[in-house]
Amino acid sequence: MLATSEVLDRRNVQIRSIGRAERDPLITMYDRFEPLGGSLGLPSYKAEVRRAWIDHSLRHTVNVAAFSPAGEVVGHCMLAADEPGSAEMAIFVHQQSRRRGIGRTLLRAALERAAAAGLGRVWSLTSPDNRAALRLQESCGFRLTKSMPLEAEMEIDLPGSEELRRYN
Q1: CA separation for the pair 74, 80 (Å, rounded)
Q2: Residue 127: CB atoms within 10 Å
Q3: Which of 113, 142, 104, 98 is nearest to 18 (CA)?
Q4: What is the pTM assigned to this prediction?
Q5: In the chain, fewer beta carbons within 10 Å around the N or the C end?
Q6: Looking at residue 1, what is its pLDDT?
Q7: What's the CA gap between 129 and 161, in Å, rounded?
């Protein structure tokens, strides 16, 4: 996927909204993603199920991706509207690009787009063992709302876009 000499961080990735035109680069990232099934079963182990999930995800309210200087997708965040004013968030950063601020930059971009789209609440489910995901979301203003043995729910009430910038 990434050249081993290419060092990525939040300063040299491009974050942008994506749609069907970016399907193939998104599939490439998820096909090389590890661990498959590591986030409550996502992304799927089965290629055909993974591709259907990607196709479905590209229809959601907000879809943003992080692109390396070479144009490869190294991260993806989507918000799926579940009821008026609310959306579920999912975020995935390729294993070679983690712990470099890319996830935080990607999530903040998604939250800004959500606020601009009029969403008032974004929530997520993750494994309570996924400390990196929990820390990432907390650093962007999410709070823990439910903690159960197999999943943790977090949410953020979205202020206007200006207030979101204070988490930058």
Answers
A1: 20
A2: 15
A3: 113
A4: 0.83
A5: C
A6: 46
A7: 31
